[in-house]
Amino acid sequence: MKILVTGTAGFIGFHLVKRLTTRGDEVVGLDNINDYYNTELKYGRLQESGISRADADSGRLTQSATLSGYRFLKASLEDAPTIGRLFAGENFDAVCHLAAQAGVRYSLINPQAYVDSNITGFINILEACRRYPVRHLVYASSSSVYGSNTKMPLSISDRTDHPVSLYAASKKSNELMAHAYSHLFQIPATGLRFFTVYGPWGRPDMAAFLFTRAILDGKPVKVFNNGDMYRDFTYIDDIIEGVVRVIDRAPAEQNPPAAIYNIGNSNPVKLTEYIVAIENALGKKAIREYLPMQPGDVYKTFADVTDLEEKINYHPSTPVTEGVRKFVEWYLQTGVKYKV
C-alpha cells in the first residue's frame, strides 16, 4: 500500500516507517519538527531513516537515501493547502495519523499548541480523507482520555467524558470528530488509545529518558505521588506490531465504519519498580526525590486489550525488564550524544 504516516520525526512514527518499508509498503512521512523537545533527536531519527537535515528542511518531498520506499515532507498539520495538495498528488491507500502536540503537563503552559495541532490539524486530515478517499484512517488517541477513572482495567466501554488535562480533551475530541466523519462520509477510521510507550529513540520527556539521565548525572529522580503510581509501560516493538495489524484491518463490517481500541501491555508496573529496572540496567542507584501528584496526572493506567486481541491477535510480549534493558543499551550508545 501507499501510506501517509504523520509524525515520522517522532518516536512511534519513526519506528513505523521502518516496519512498513521493510514489508514493502510505500510510505510518505510528514512532520513539522517542532521544538516541543530537542529537535536534534528528531533530526537524528530522520537521519537514521535516510533523510538528511538539509533535505528535511528543504520543504520538498524528499526521497530517503536508505529506505527506497520512504519519502518525507516537512510541513505542519495546520497548513491545509499543503495537506490538500499532498493528498491530491499521492492517492494514498491508508493514513496513519500519529502527529500531535503531545504531553500532559505542557498543555498547562501552552494550550494553544494543542488546539492548533490536535484540533485544527486533525480536521485538515479528516477533510483530506473526505475529498481524497482512503481505505483506512488510523489515528492516535491516548489513555489520557480515561481521566481519573478508577475502574481497572480501563476498557473502551468505560466513560471518557471527564478529561483532567487539555491534552486528554483534545484526544477525546479527535475520537468524536473521527466518528462524525465516519458516519457522514463513510470514512473507515480506527482510533488507538496508546498506553505509555517507551523504547529506543523515545521521547525525552517520558520516564525512561528522565530517570536514566538523572541517574547517570547523579541528580535526583522526581518520583511523583510519592511513588504510588502505576503505568502500563508498553515496549515500542509491541506497539508497532499492533499498529501495523490495525492498518491492515479497516472496520468495514460495521456502520459507521469506526472503531476504537486500547493498545498497551495490559500489565501495569509501579513507578518505583520501573526505576529499579533502570537502576539494574545501569548498575547504578537512583537518588529519589518524592513529590506529590502533579496537575493533570492520573494514578494508574491499565489497558484492557481484549478487543484488540480478538480482532487482530494482538499479544504484547516484551517484559518491562527486557524493554528497559534495550532502552538503556540504546541510550548509552546513541541517546547520550543528543544530550536528552
Give the tags.
single chain, 340 residues, alpha/beta, 8-stranded mixed sheet, two-stranded parallel sheet, 14 strands, 39% helix, 17% strand
Q: What is the compact description of this entry?
A:
The chain is an alpha/beta fold and 340 residues long.
Describe the structure.
The structure is a single chain. The protein is α/β, with parallel strands linked by helices and 340 residues long. 39% of the residues lie in helices and 17% in strands. It contains 11 helices and 14 strands. α1 crosses α8, α4 packs parallel to α5 and α7 crosses α9. It starts with a strand and ends in a 7-residue tail after the last helix. The mean pLDDT is 95.
Count the beta strands. Answer: 14
User: What is the helical fraction, as a range of percent?
Assistant: 25-40%
Shape: globular
> What's the order of the H and E elements?
EHEHHEEHEHEHEEHEEEHEEHEHH
User: What average pLDDT do the residues reach?
Assistant: 95
If you compute it from the alpha carbons, what radius of gyration comes out, rounded to the nearest whole angstrom?
19 Å
Strand content: 15-25%
Query: What is the oligomeric state here?
Result: single chain
Largest sheet descriptor: 8 strands, mixed
SSE topology sketch:
Elements (H helix, E strand, L loop, with lengths): L1 E5 L4 H12 L3 E6 L7 H10 L4 H4 L5 E2 L6 E5 L5 H11 L3 E4 L13 H21 L4 E7 L23 H20 L3 E6 L2 E2 L8 H11 L2 E5 L5 E2 L2 E2 H12 L10 E6 L5 E2 H12 L4 E5 L14 H7 L7 H14 L7
Parallel strand pairs: 1-2, 1-5, 2-4, 5-6, 6-7, 7-12, 8-11, 9-14
Antiparallel strand pairs: 3-4, 10-13
